[in-house]
């Protein structure tokens, strides 16, 4: 189900709790909401749709990929990036890393470890920050 984008900074600033298999509807809702906003978003975190769980979704071309309980385990090559956010007005500068390694679970809760680079890595870092209550 497509959900409204949350703009409540107090809620968005809370650290998310670990997602479980009981949260599969939230995963579906997050992917549906990202697909509905592909004209203006490349990623979403569950707290952006009012669910305080560690779930993100990223848009890679036509694919919307959910990541459950993502953790960035390695980072390299820092740089300054200017980013916007659907939940916040304007753009802000932050430090990102060109290459990251992420552990996460897929929609079936199977574990994965994967390396991401460049813009995809930047999207994931932004959304993982959301799960930590970090707003850029």
From TrEMBL:
InterPro entries, per this entry?
Peptide_deformylase, Peptide_deformylase_sf
Pfam families in UniProt: Pep_deformylase (PF01327)
Please list the GO terms describing molecular function. Answer: peptide deformylase activity
Q: What is its EC number?
A: 3.5.1.88
What name does the UniProt record give this protein? Answer: Peptide deformylase
Similarity comment text for this entry: Belongs to the polypeptide deformylase family.
Provide the alphabetized UniProt keywords.
Hydrolase
Q: Which organism is it from?
A: Secundilactobacillus angelensis
